[in-house]
């Protein structure tokens, strides 16, 4: 098979190729390392590539395959976002303010290795993972393979760029306010924010006051399901991969393009068209699609998301041994977080259950909520370079208004690729599930994927 076809085959298909002996784990790794060496100097997806360690892991995976062991991710290369610990490597958080190398893997990385995945390297993030674009003064800008002048999004932008360009088939991201779903949207990937605590955050438990979760950025729905099966707690019978193979049944789906109160933005024409087309397809697939808006509290963002987001930044910054090396904009965000007292956080968390019950009351008689994936396409690299903390936040938030509220409620949400806009950049729609409803989202996502395949769409860069 052509090396490019292998590179873009996705994790599940690569796993099947490895199991069948069509390619060896060292050969597959070499193919991806060659692509990284050839393409990443312009993309800037990886902060560090672990050539030597990865080669040893690939050899070990091949020995397991040769001994007859079979597992879906055995020998498959993966990328790790640089807010997750990898033993022997620094966790840089997009900054030179970071501490020494870590002595142990984060739990999610340990589980990926146990499943046989080969850790290729660590991917770039904005400083302290604050922004939905991936640029830092320390490590530079990560670029979108669909248009090198644009951001891939963030904060899991390095992982998204790597998967979209075929540098790896699968990657670890984290999502505290859309940081998986935003770059998945703008890079044409399937991105899933799992239920809070589904995938372990250890040793960073409770990150961003409960907003943040770990999850996959993937080429296909099946790839994301395999990631969950390897890393998640409380798996359903048969694992999440079984949900991909089963029809989801007739679902009641609410569609809403309403922006949560307090978010200033306007949904673009291409994004509205994709949203409408998705609703029409879901009806064609036999689902009951109704127009209905969630009961968003007027002070929802101010009352729940913002205090936890800002305090989370402040708490993360407090762990940096060299805070004087942080960017001025990051220090400003941390100062704002310092204004959120322990008492205020206690009150916010005490009110969380009532807030969640109100917002999720829409799921009393619907199974899934459909929203646009983003309000607009990705900004150009450097668009916010000279902006301060508040100015940057106010301008970027309107581009991605549909993600953060579901971090506050904690339930799963996924973005499904949906064609290209007039500039040739990817679009998506978001599917929000009931609490603990990943299996429904995966089953519905796979149904949409079968009706409207997206994995064969590839950016010009890297073909």
UniProtKB/TrEMBL annotation:
EC class of the enzyme, as a word: hydrolase
PANTHER family for this protein: GLUTAMYL-TRNA(GLN) AMIDOTRANSFERASE SUBUNIT A, MITOCHONDRIAL, TRANSAMIDASE
Entries under PROSITE patterns matching the protein: AMIDASES
InterPro entries: Amidase, Amidase_CS, Amidase_dom, AS_sf
Keywords for this protein: Hydrolase
Classification via Gene3D superfamilies: Amidase signature (AS) domain
Gene Ontology molecular function: amidase activity
One Pfam family from the record: Amidase
Superkingdom of source: Bacteria
Domain Amidase, residue spans: 29-442
Protein name per the record: Amidase
């Amino acid at each position: 098979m052509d090396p490019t076809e292998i590179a873009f085959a996705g994790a599940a298909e690569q796993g099947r190729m490895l199991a069948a002996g069509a390619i060896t784990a060292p050969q597959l790794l070499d193919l991806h390392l060659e692509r990284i060496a050839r393409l990443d100097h312009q993309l800037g997806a990886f902060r560090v590539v672990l050539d030597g360690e990865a080669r040893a892991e690939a050899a070990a995976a091949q020995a397991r395959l040769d001994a007859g062991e079979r597992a879906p991710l055995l020998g498959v290369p993966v990328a790790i976002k640089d807010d997750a610990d990898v033993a022997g490597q620094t966790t840089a958080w997009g900054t030179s303010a970071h501490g020494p190398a870590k002595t142990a893997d984060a739990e999610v990385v340990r589980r990926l290795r146990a499943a046989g995945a080969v850790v290729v390297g660590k991917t770039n993030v904005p400083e302290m993972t604050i922004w939905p674009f991936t640029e830092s003064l320390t490590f530079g800008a990560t670029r979108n393979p669909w248009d090198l002048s644009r951001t891939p999004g963030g904060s899991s932008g390095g992982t998204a760029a790597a998967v979209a360009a075929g540098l790896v088939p699968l990657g670890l991201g984290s999502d505290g306010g859309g940081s998986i779903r935003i770059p998945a949207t703008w890079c044409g990937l399937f991105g899933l924010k799992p239920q809070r605590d589904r995938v372990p955050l250890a040793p960073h438990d409770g990150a961003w006051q409960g907003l943040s979760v770990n999850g996959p950025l993937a080429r296909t729905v099946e790839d994301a399901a395999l990631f969950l099966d390897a890393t998640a707690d409380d798996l359903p019978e048969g694992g999440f991969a079984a949900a991909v193979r089963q029809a989801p049944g007739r679902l009641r789906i609410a569609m809403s393009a309403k922006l949560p109160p307090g978010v200033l933005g306007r949904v673009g024409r291409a994004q509205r068209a994709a949203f409408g087309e998705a609703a029409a397809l879901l009806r064609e697939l036999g689902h009951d699609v109704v127009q209905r808006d969630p009961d968003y509290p007027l002070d929802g963002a101010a009352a729940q998301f913002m205090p936890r987001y800002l305090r989370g930044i402040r708490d993360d910054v407090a762990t940096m041994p060299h805070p004087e090396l942080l960017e001025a904009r990051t220090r400003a965000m941390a100062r704002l977080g310092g204004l959120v007292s322990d008492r205020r956080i206690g009150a916010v968390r005490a009110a969380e259950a009532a807030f969640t019950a109100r917002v999720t009351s829409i799921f009393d008689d619907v199974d899934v909520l459909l929203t646009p994936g983003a309000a607009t396409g990705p900004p150009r690299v450097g668009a916010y370079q000279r902006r301060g903390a508040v100015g940057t936040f106010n301008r970027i938030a309107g581009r991605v208004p549909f993600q953060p509220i579901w971090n506050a409620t904690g339930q799963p949400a996924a973005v499904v690729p949906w064609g290209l806009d007039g500039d040739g950049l990817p679009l998506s729609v978001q599917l929000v599930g009931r609490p603990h409803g990943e299996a429904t989202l995966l089953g519905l996502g796979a149904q949409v994927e079968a009706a409207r395949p997206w994995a064969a769409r590839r950016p010009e860069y890297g073909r």
